Amino acid sequence: MKVTVSRKAHFNAAHRLFNPKWSDEKNKTIFGKCSNLNYHGHNYELIVSVRGELDPETGFVMNLDDLRKIIEVEVEEYLDHKNLNLDVEEFKTLNPTAENIVIVIWKKIKAKLENHLDLKVTLYETPRNFVEFSGE
Ligand SMILES: Nc1nc2c(c(=O)[nH]1)N=C([C@H](O)[C@H](O)COP(=O)(O)OP(=O)(O)OP(=O)(O)O)CN2
Predict the structure, then answer these.
(1) Local confidence band at 52 (pLDDT 50, 70, 90 cut-offs)
(2) ipTM reported for the complex, 2 dp
(3) Which of 38, 79, 115, 119 is most buried, judged by most C-beta within 10 A?
(4) Dihedral of CA 17/22/24/25: which sign?
(5) How far apart are the first and last CA of the chain?
(6) 95, 92, 81: which is closest to 31 by C-alpha?
(7) How many helices (H) and strands (E) does the chain have?
């Protein structure tokens, strides 16, 4: 039997959505106010869900305190209070859409989990806009 355990987290970050191959005008047409030249910020919320068999000795899928520490290093220390376009290596060449951000977060957390565990990350960019990634 598999069980899913989850932990919530959050970070604040600034970004600008744009495609460097396009003019500022075209970026404004496609990305609207999200393409503001001087950036804008979001209070990102995330739910990190790990699914797997229970360890018969602990009754845990994984220790949620270990998951807390992974999120602290891989997400909060890496992204909190950053300008995603300027400060975060991946987004120097990748548009920091919610879709691309959730994939970057998923890869960083997945690399720290035991191989047999499945991972899903849900990222809220606003209280009503959210994306999910499970590695498929
Ligand atoms: N597929 C995507 N579409 C959009 C993305 C994205 O990452 N992927 N991003 C944006 C904007 O960056 C941002 O999400 C929009 O923010 P905001 O204008 O504040 O959104 P709302 O007006 O809808 O605010 P609510 O509070 O959610 O009503 C746009 N599109």
Answers:
(1) very high
(2) 0.89
(3) 79
(4) negative
(5) 22
(6) 95
(7) 5, 5
